[in-house]
Amino acid sequence: MSHVSVLLKETIDYLNVKEEGIYLDATCGRGGHTEAIVKQLTTGKVIVFDLDIVAIEEAKKRLTPYLDKLIFINDNYATLKEHCEKQNISQLDGFVFDLGVSSPQFDDPSRGFSYRYDSNLDMRMDQSQTFSAYHLVNEYPLNQLTNVLRDYGEEPFAYPIAKKIVAARLLAPITTTGQLVEIIKSALPSRILHQKGHPAKQTFQAIRIEVNQELASVEKAVSDACALLKVGCRGCVITFHSLEDRIVKEIFKQLSTPPKTNRRLPQQIIDVQYQLIIKKPLTPSEEELIENPRSHSAKLRVIERKRG
Predict the structure, then answer these.
(1) How far is it between the farthest Cα atoms of the chain?
(2) Per residue in 44-56, is it b (16+ CB within 10 Å) or e — as a string?
């Protein structure tokens, strides 16, 4: 399946792209959002992040006509503040985060992200990183493994699955996604196995998040990107599961909500620096869901800086 940028039109519409603006695409993927932004620029630039060097190389091919307007950075987006400083960029005219794993990463069996293929346990977005899903599955103690599955996968059977993993690896190292899927299935009641959806989905999500330290990176990066926004400019964040969305929702809420004051004291009007552009997150249209089933869990949140 080719990569389709989710909520592309809606995101770009909300950005209100200025032809001379400086924009951040924190999650380049295959360059869909970047392309939609850069096409509208004259003297502007897009700073393009991706932890996956394969994604950057593929995006460069797609974006060849616009390379003079792009700054590619192969690094974790949690470092965006530092990289902007190196580029002498102190403010942004807008930013986009399209969180999670891109379709090409899921669809490449060698990357080990998907439970649909039997491949090596990997799940590293950064291929230069040594720690992989193999190390997590074979080395984390029972309690730590249980916590990862419960906290990052919201897996109700976290303990039984972790216990089965620990028992299996005592016999031989768990090396493939196929082995892990069978272990997960063996830990679940038959009624769960017969429900809609893959039984390994939540466990795979949890392991991927831990391997790539995704949630800590999201919190820092989105906060830093908001701090760099110019007055009157917007940031768009697309999430795909509740853990990411909760973090983004809380950051946006804190930035756009006046602090509580003592009711006994004379009340001051406190003008917050940010405002939510849409009160509830935007979700894909019926047409998009038909064209791209993987977009079903996507949520778009948009924030604007009102004052400095």
Answers:
(1) 70
(2) bbbbbbbbbeebb
- What is the pLDDT, as a whole number, of residue 240? 92
pLDDT score recorded for residue 269: 56
What percentage of the chain's residues is helix, strand, coil (to nearest 5)? Answer: 50, 15, 40
- 180, 212, 244: which is the final residue of a domain? 212
174 and 138 in contact (C-beta within 8 Å)?
A: yes
Q: Tokens in use for 239?
A: 């999430």
- Decide which of 177, 197, 212 is a domain's last residue: 212
- pTM recorded for the entire structure: 0.90
> What integer pLDDT is reported at residue 2 of this predicted model?
47
Residue-level pLDDT at 108: 84
pLDDT (0 to 100) of residue 1 = 39
Q: In CATH, what number is assigned to the domain containing residue 141? A: 1.10.150.170
Distance CA 103, CA 177 (A): 18
Helix ranges (H only) for the chain are 8-15, 32-38, 53-62, 80-86, 103-107, 133-139, 142-153, 158-171, 177-187, 190-193, 201-212, 214-228, 242-256, 286-291
C-alpha radius of gyration, the chain, whole number: 21
Structural domain range at position 121? 112-212
* One-letter identity of residue 18: K
